[in-house]
Write a structure and sequence with these properties.
The structure is a single chain. The protein has 504 residues and is an alpha/beta fold. It has 4 domains: 114 residues, Tumour Suppressor Smad4 (Sandwich); 163 residues, Rossmann fold (3-Layer(aba) Sandwich); 72 residues, Helicase, Ruva Protein, domain 3, CATH 1.10.8.60; 49 residues. It is 30% helix and 22% strand. It has 14 helices and 26 strands. Strands 2, 3, 4, 9, 10, 12 and 13 form a 7-stranded antiparallel sheet that branches. β21 and β22 form a beta hairpin. α8 runs parallel beside α10. It is globular and about 75 Å long. 32% of the residues are buried.
C-alpha cells in the first residue's frame, strides 16, 4: 500500500516543549539530543545535536551524511526551537515520511522515527545542554531587535565580522539583510575601504557580467573605453551581492573562480588582476533547492556560505515591533522638531493593530506604513482609525501578496491570515463594533468571531472606537486556548486535508 503524502505540521507534546531552559543576558541553554540511524545502509550511525541547525543529506557538507542514492544532497535540517527540535524538509526529491505521511515540518518527540530515503532515523533527547551565546546589544549597526532570535543573529555576526569569512544571509524580502551586510563591513578590519553593492535582481542579466568584472576597450560594440567592475571597485573592502539566487548559472563559474583565486578577468581581457575583496551575499530563495534543480552550483553555495545566517521574519519576533515603531517615530519627530513643527505620537490602540499585523513585507513594510501614515495623519496622534484606513482602506489597492519564493502551503497560509485580518477589520468597522450583527452577517458563531477579533486585536463592543455596545453576550469572555492568540492562521480556516478544508 502506497504511503499517504499529505503534508502536515505536528506540534510537540506538552511534556516535550521545553528546550530553551534559561535565557540569561548573554546566553541561553538548549537541551541536546541525538539522531540514530535505526535501519538502512548507515544503520548504527549516530549524530549528536550540538548546535542549533544541522543538515542531513548525501553531500559531504552535511552534518549527518547518508551515503544513499535515494537521499538528496541536502535533504533535511533539524533546528533547535523554543517548542522543541524541528525537522524540516529542504524540498528534497523523495521527502521525509513519518507514520505513513509525507511531512514538510514536524517537531520531534522522544522516540520519534522518520524515513529519509531508505534510512529510518530515530530522535533521542539527552539531558546535557548546549550554551548558545546571545548578543548583549539590541542593535547591530542600523539593524535592531531585542528578541532572542535577533540577539542570536547579532551574536554570530559580531563574532565573524572582524574576520574575512564569506557570509550568506538568508531571509525574506524586507528583513534587513542589506543593513546587516553594512554592519558586517562596519565592524570589520575593512571598514575604511569601500562597501559596494550589487543587486542581482535589479540589474539585467545581460549586464551583470560587465557590472561585476568590468570590460576592456573594444570588448564589444559600444565599449569605447575600459570599465572597472565592482570587484575592482571594492578592492580592499566588501562586496555585497544581494539576491545571489538571481545570478544566471552561466556566470556562476566565473564568480566561483574569483572567490577561489582572488583575481578577476575583465570581459574582453586576457590578463587577470588581483583583488582583495570580502563577499557577503544574501537571498530570499532556497538555494539548496536550486542546487537540486541544477539552477545553482553546489560548489559556489559552499564557497558563499562558510558562515550562513538566517534572518527571522518580523512575524516570528513580534516583540521587536514596538522597538522598531519607536525608532521610526523618533526619526520622524526629529525632522519635525528641526522644522519647528509639533511632534507626533501613536495611540495605544493603533499600536495593538501594528502588533497584530502579520507584516508579510517585514520591517520594510512596517517602516513604509509608518512613514506614510505619519505624513498623512491630520492630527498630532495617529489613531487606530488612521491605520485601518491606510492599511485596509477601500481606496488603496489590496496589499495581499503571493510570495512564490515560499512553499505553496506556507505562502497560502500567510495570504489567508492577511485576508482574515482585512475582512474582519472591515466587517466590524461597518457594523459599528456590534459583535452580534457582525457574526450574523459573516455567518460565524459569535464566540468564534470574538476569538478571531482578539487574535488580530480588533476592538468590538465597548472596545471599538465610535462604536455601539454589543447586542448580547458577556463582554468579559476570554480565549480559552491561549495558542489561538499566537497563531494567526492555523485555527482561522480549515487546513488542507482537514474537514472543511481544500483537498489539495
Amino acid at each position: 500500500m502506497e504511503p499517504k503524502t499529505r503534508e502536515f505540521l505536528v506540534r510537540p507534546e506538552v511534556t516535550q516543549r521545553t528546550v530553551f531552559l534559561n535565557e540569561a543576558r548573554d546566553f541561553k541553554l538548549v537541551r541536546q539530543g541525538r539522531l540514530v540511524v535505526a535501519k538502512g545502509s548507515e544503520a548504527g550511525l549516530e549524530y549528536r545535536l550540538q548546535k542549533e541547525r544541522i543538515l542531513i543529506g548525501r553531500s559531504s557538507a552535511c552534518d549527518l551524511r547518508l551515503n544513499d542514492s535515494s537521499v538528496s544532497a541536502l535533504h533535511a535540517e533539524v533546528l533547535a526551537r523554543p517548542e522543541g527540535y524541528l525537522l524540516r524538509d529542504l524540498d528534497s526529491t523523495n521527502g521525509i515520511f513519518m507514520l505513513g505521511h509525507r511531512v514538510r515540518e514536524v517537531y520531534l518527540n522522544e522516540g520519534s522515527q522518520f524515513q529519509v530515503g531508505n534510512n529510518l532515523l530515530r530522535f533521542e533527547p539527552l539531558q546535557s545542554v548546549l550554551r548558545i551565546p546571545l548578543s548583549r546589544r539590541d542593535r547591530f549597526g542600523k539593524a535592531m531587535g531585542a528578541s532572542v532570535k535577533m540577539r542570536e543573529v547579532f551574536a554570530v555576526l559580531e563574532k565573524v565580522a572582524p574576520s574575512d569569512l564569506p557570509v550568506l544571509l538568508r531571509g525574506e524580502t524586507g528583513t534587513g539583510k542589506e543593513l546587516l551586510a553594512e554592519a558586517i563591513h562596519a565592524y570589520s578590519l575593512r571598514k575604511n575601504h569601500p562597501f559596494v553593492v550589487l543587486d542581482c535582481g535589479a540589474v539585467p542579466a545581460t549586464l551583470i557580467e560587465d557590472t561585476l568584472f568590468g570590460h576592456e576597450r573594444g570588448a564589444f560594440t559600444g565599449a569605447d573605453s575600459m570599465r572597472r567592475g565592482l570587484f575592482e571597485e571594492a578592492d580592499g573592502g566588501t562586496l555585497f551581492i544581494d539576491e545571489i539566487g538571481e545570478l544566471d548559472v552561466s556566470l556562476q563559474p566565473k564568480l566561483l573562480r574569483v572567490l577561489e583565486h582572488h583575481e578577476v578577468q575583465r570581459v574582453g581581457g586576457v590578463k587577470t588582476l588581483p583583488v582583495d575583496v570580502r563577499v557577503v551575499a544574501a537571498t530570499h530563495r532556497n538555494l539548496r533547492q536550486m542546487v537540486e534543480e541544477g539552477r545553482f552550483r553546489e560548489d559556489l553555495l559552499y564557497r558563499l556560505s562558510v558562515v550562513e545566517v538566517e534572518i527571522p521574519p518580523l512575524r516570528e519576533r513580534p516583540e521587536d515591533i514596538r522597538m522598531l515603531v519607536q525608532a521610526a517615530l523618533a526619526e520622524f519627530n526629529a525632522e519635525r522638531k528641526a522644522a519647528g513643527r509639533e511632534e507626533m505620537a501613536i495611540d495605544p490602540l493603533a499600536l495593538q493593530l501594528l502588533d497584530a499585523h502579520p507584516w508579510p513585507g517585514n520591517v520594510r513594510e512596517l517602516r513604509n506604513t509608518l512613514e506614510r501614515v505619519l505624513h498623512l495623519c491630520s492630527g498630532p496622534v495617529v489613531s487606530r482609525q488612521d491605520l485601518m484606513l491606510d492599511m485596509f482602506g477601500g481606496n488603496r489597492r489590496s496589499t495581499l501578496a503571493v510570495d512564490v519564493g515560499l512553499p505553496y502551503k506556507e505562502s497560502k497560509a500567510r495570504l489567508v491570515s492577511r485576508f482574515e485580518q482585512e475582512y474582519l477589520t472591515r466587517l466590524v468597522q461597518e457594523e459599528g463594533g456590534n459583535l452580534s450583527r457582525a457574526a450574523r452577517r459573516a455567518g460565524l458563531a459569535r464566540q468564534h468571531l470574538r476569538t478571531l477579533c482578539r487574535r488580530y486585536a480588533i476592538p468590538v463592543g465597548a472596545e471599538a472606537q465610535d462604536g455601539e455596545a454589543e447586542g448580547s453576550g458577556d463582554p468579559g469572555e476570554e480565549i480559552t486556548d491561549p495558542s489561538l492568540a499566537d497563531r494567526p492562521q492555523e485555527n482561522g480556516a480549515p487546513s488542507p486535508g482537514e474537514p472543511g478544508g481544500e483537498n489539495d
